[in-house]
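go over this record:
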Amino acid sequence: MTRRAPFGFTKAVFLSHVVDQSTPVFPGDPPVGIRPAASIERDGYYLQSLTFGEQSGTHWAAPAHFHVGQPAADELDPGDFFHPAVVLDVRAAAGRDADFTLGVAEIQRWESAFGPIPPGSAVIMWTGFEDRWEDPIAYLNADSAGRLHYPGFGAQATRWLIEHRSVRVLGIDTMGIDPGADPTFAADQSLLWDHRLHLENLCGLGQMPPSGGWIVIGGFRVRAGSGSPATVFGLIP
């Protein structure tokens, strides 16, 4: 059955992975657990018990994830979850170099083609790593020393987007908005203040236009939470 997209958009799409027990997690995070809790045959209804970390699967992080005294999951506003979205296709560069780090020059080249990034946007990197999701080893891409290798936002680019474009969200189809090889989490350290969010482990980004779309971010309002697993919707004009 075809349903009309909301708010005058032509199409709504999922930008989040389905969560199961094979879902990749950041090293050291709790694994995803799913077990039966009730069955129709025994209990008259069907129910599963879920266990996972707040940053599991496709998820968002609140500023409290990195900074004491900043808003936690239950302290965010409704408007923090609705944003115009721009998608930067960096698959070619990421394919050549798994450690590709987005810089200001790449952002400015995107703007020369598609126009200025609107204030309040979610800026999303489409690296192509979403295609590795079913293979957690390839997705995390760790070397023999355990160092991860996947693309991300550079610290300078993150600060530029905040200071010059007033972005509210950075998103990516890898395990983190920071390059995997950056142990300092410099992009997250700059981004996660004052109701700004990150979105990680996105998928389906090829369905989105480079500009003109919107995202709607769902999840749990966990008391004092660092964030939440999320269903993320893309709205296409």
Observations:
- The mean pLDDT is 96.
- The domain at 6-24+53-236 is CATH 3.50.30.50 (Glucose Oxidase; domain 1).
- The longest strand covers residues 82-89.
- The helical segments are 40-43, 91-96, 104-114, 136-140, 155-165, 186-191.
